[in-house]
Design a protein that fits this description.
369 residues; Adenine-n6-DNA-methyltransferase TaqI, Chain A, domain 2; 2 domains; 4-stranded antiparallel beta sheet; 9 helices; 23 strands; hydrolase; restriction system; endonuclease activity; endonuclease; DNA-binding
């Protein structure tokens, strides 16, 4: 494959994002991107999509592909490639760059545009770039579709519970149907699955990424448990998730700042999750925080007296019959995403270096998409 070498700044114009403080945003359909990713929405875009956004402050080297119009803020660059560069191919090529060596500034890591522009890029023919982007993009598009389905599934589950309790006349005390920080056996040897706070989803349902490490102190949990972040600012950011990624009987470890909730016998495992996602529960929990303003924590013992709206035992069973199979399907889609991402990450450097042909890559993708 013939490639032409060029200085990156000669073929791509990296432009500064525009300042848009949260107080100036008008809620709308346009995604607002900062160095850490999606930070909100606005009524107007400043860049016509699709948009390639590159973090320049803080999380330097973080790269985002936005298929729609967008509003990159002033902690980012956005890319305007010349005619010889396919924008989505450029998105994938940037993933091959080690941005750590480009960081400047003694405080907050920063990416200088001059340093970015001075990088050398090897350009295959434009049509070849497009073919590479199509192969890798097919994997990312499927991942994005599965994530949208996960968000829709979460909304369906929460809406179903809300409907069931909208006219409920009965309440139940939390401790009668949920165990808080239940006892879980410790793992004594080897390693155990570990869930870091950063990987607990915000406004989500299922965990997408987790690790493995020797068992140490912290929260212990099993499949069917709900994890609830109790510390500021994770509490305000609604970090909260349902555990489904362990093997049967396996024990996972996580942050000491998790509260673990488990449904009591005869109660659907999905119910602690949906109740702890409600505004009423979160308001109750917020009233039971202690500590200084910057490091407040919800105290688990204070939650056991919470009175939850209850739809009746029969409706609660019906809810479990609706929610649990849906969660299982969403878990299967999440597992598929892990395979898709692994395939993409393996193919990306091979395609960019020319060590594998597009045709061979397409054959691999056919087996997973």
């Amino acid at each position: 494959m013939i490639q032409t070498k060029a200085r990156l700044g000669d073929v791509v114009d990296f432009r500064y994002g525009q300042g848009l403080p949260a107080s100036a945003r008008v809620e709308g359909p346009v995604p607002v991107f900062g160095s850490g990713g999606l930070v909100g929405r606005h009524s107007e875009a400043c860049v016509v999509g699709p948009v390639l956004v590159l973090a320049r402050k803080g999380s330097i080297g973080a790269i985002y592909w936005v298929p729609s119009n967008a509003y990159p803020i002033d902690t980012t660059y956005w890319a305007a490639p010349g005619a010889e560069v396919d924008k989505r191919w450029l998105y994938y090529w940037l993933h091959t760059v080690d941005f750590r060596g480009l960081s400047s500034g003694s405080g907050v890591p920063s990416l200088r545009r001059d340093d970015l522009n001075d990088l050398e890029i090897s350009l295959p023919p434009k049509r070849q770039q497009q073919k590479i982007a199509e192969v890798l993009g097919a994997l990312d598009d499927k991942i994005a579709a599965n994530r949208r389905a996960a968000q829709t599934g979460r909304e369906l589950i929460l809406a179903q519970w809300s409907r069931l309790v909208s006219d409920a006349e009965e309440t139940r005390e939390w401790s009668t149907f949920v165990e808080t920080n239940p006892k879980v056996p410790a793992v004594k040897d080897g390693t155990a699955p570990y869930l870091d706070m950063k990987n607990l989803p915000e406004n989500g349902l299922l965990v997408e990424e987790w690790g493995e490490r020797p068992p140490q102190g912290g929260a212990r949990f099993q499949n069917g448990d709900t994890l609830f972040a109790r510390i500021t600012p994770c509490f305000e950011n609604r970090k909260h998730g349902y555990v489904d990624f362990l093997d049967d009987g396996e024990v996972g470890y996580g942050s000491t700042e998790y509260i673990v909730f488990r449904a009591r016998e005869g109660v659907s495992a999905a119910i602690p999750f949906v109740v702890t996602a409600t505004a009423d529960f979160r308001s109750f929990a917020a009233q039971h925080r202690t500590g200084t303003s910057g490091r407040q924590r919800v105290q688990a013992p204070d939650l056991v007296s919470y009175e939850a709206a209850w739809p009746g035992d029969l409706r609660a069973v019906e809810f479990g019959a609706f929610a649990e199979p849906l969660i299982a399907r969403l878990g299967a889609a999440r597992d598929e995403n892990r395979v898709l991402a692994k395939t993409r990450d393996e193919l990306l450097p091979l395609l960019m270096s020319g060590k594998i042909t597009v045709r061979d890559a397409e054959k691999r993708v056919e087996g997973v998409v």
